[in-house]
Amino acid sequence: MKRIFILMIGLGLVAGFNRCADDDYSSKYNNPEQTSEPSIEKLMTGVFHAGRDFTFNSYWRSYTWENGVMGVYAQTIGFLNAPGGMYTANDSYANNRWENFYDVLAQFRILQHEFGKLDAVQQANYKVFVNLSEIFVYDHLSQIIDTFGDVPFSKAGYLYITNDLQGSYPSYDKATDIYSEMLDRLGEIYTELNAIGSPNNILAAQDFINKGDLSLWIKYCNSLRLRLAMRVASQGDLSSKGRQIVAEILNGNYPLVSALTETIQVLPDTRDFNYGDEFRDGFKDHSRASQEMLNVLLTEGTLGENDPRLPIMYSTNAAGEYKGLSTHETYAEQQTNTNLSESQRVYSRIDSTTVIFNRNLISPIVTAAEVDFMKAEAFQRGWADGDAKQAFIDGILHSTQFYFEENKVSPSSDGTKMDIPAESLIVAYAEKVWNAATNKEIAIITQKWLNFGFLQPFQAWNEIRRTGYPEFYYPEDVTAQLLKTLPNRVRYPASERNNNTENYNAQVQSMGGTDDAYIKPFWAK
Asked: How far apart are CA 346 and CA 319, in angstroms?
């Protein structure tokens, strides 16, 4: 919690302040972090802005966290089987992810506090800003829970409001309790947003995610709720509740993200939220293909054709072939191959046009393909009524459309620019994949994992932990001091151990006395 204390006391910040904002940000939005008279709409933008680095595919997020840690755990990035720290999550990177969320939460607590000061008429007019902020907070809160486990929440983020330093060290909440609350509140928020006749006329100016489009926020809300419900539905203490909510949403035809144009995303532009050339540094040391990703895409031998996404997701090696780094290779083999010159390059790379040099990269939050694959799994398992095959086909179609859109919007000429194949060809390919699958559930999860891929590797790792699929080989790191095999969670960062010591120690005791990286999330298989 140290970051919160510094932000709220050391810098003397007032309502809505978390840290100094970028000049380009304030030129585009009314920045609550640079005003002494916070307003509800500006505080909402402040919540979004505080979490921007882990919402947009920023350099820092991509290099340190997504590619350096989560991409390894999910095998969506090609990596070296380097001994001694193959599965280590750098503590400073884990700490950055942790503190970023609590920056978001502190901003949200201030928003709640300021909203509480309004009269009934004002609250009716400004409730939407609180609702949208709450959706965003739950998205990031679920990521923190899925990373670490039980976390401080109900008592966290109130220091500015109480000015009570000693009383500001928050205790931990059970992950199951928080998940249950999020599932309930997202359902209530959907009802509240549905009751709004027309959006506040200043919403569009303050919303850099959905540009004030309430229909997209409703779909974000329901799609996030479906994601969380599906996560807990397979097993664990909330499985019954999860399945009930899945049925409620799908059988009730709740509005969900269902088309490329409805992608919940953050878009860069040429002036403000554009990390520009530094974005490629996020893939600088993580550009080599994962053989496991290629194995799913390379289907010519079994289906007579490769996945239509293959040529815009990856480049070939020097021999014109697709080959990725594999965990079945020895470290010595990998070193030999990676030390060869470019003219002898052994490994394929993530496509430079679609991703690495794409200054216009779309940063996905929720895609139509993810929703399709959730539907397909729910229908296949009998948790809701629907056609699993059609949802599966829709998922591959929408995933293909999304990756081709990434390729289309890229200004880079250093790579492959391709027109998307005809929809009928994509659908025909998806039907082949479905018909060839002996286990439909594994086929669905595998395609969902592939769609998350190198842009959403954390969500890909969640699927592996939740279902056990796809099944991959993870070599033992025999020389590692702590993590010799793939962990199930990330240990709490040192800053939490050092600054919230009493509550941290109590939490560790509840875990059996050890902050063990091999303790599974409550929803994991």
From this structure: 8
Q: State the Cα–Cα distance between residues 116 and 111, nearest whole angstrom.
A: 9
- pLDDT tens-digit map of 246-279: 999 999 999 999 999 999 998 876 555 555 556 6
Contact 365, 402 (CB under 8 A): no
Q: Which domains does the chain have, with CATH numbers?
A: 2-23+30-51+99-259+488-510 (1.25.40.390), 276-467 (1.25.40.390)
Residue indicated by tokens 């009802």: 191
Cβ of 505: how many Cβ atoms within 10 Å? 13
In this prediction, residues 153-167 reach a mean pLDDT of 92
Tokens of 320: 């014109």
Computed over every residue of the chain, the mean pLDDT equals: 91
What string of DSSP letters covers 265-295?
Answer: EE---SSSS--GGGGGGGGTTS-BPBHHHHH
264-266/363-366 β-pairing: antiparallel
Q: How many angstroms separate the Cα of 195 from the Cα of each of 138, 187, 192?
A: 21, 13, 5
Q: Secondary structure of the chain: what % helix, strand, coil (to 5)?
A: 55, 5, 40
The pTM of the whole model exceeds 0.85: yes
Helix boundaries (H) for 20-90: 23-26, 40-50, 59-60, 71-74
Query: Residue 243 has which token pair?
Result: 């399945």
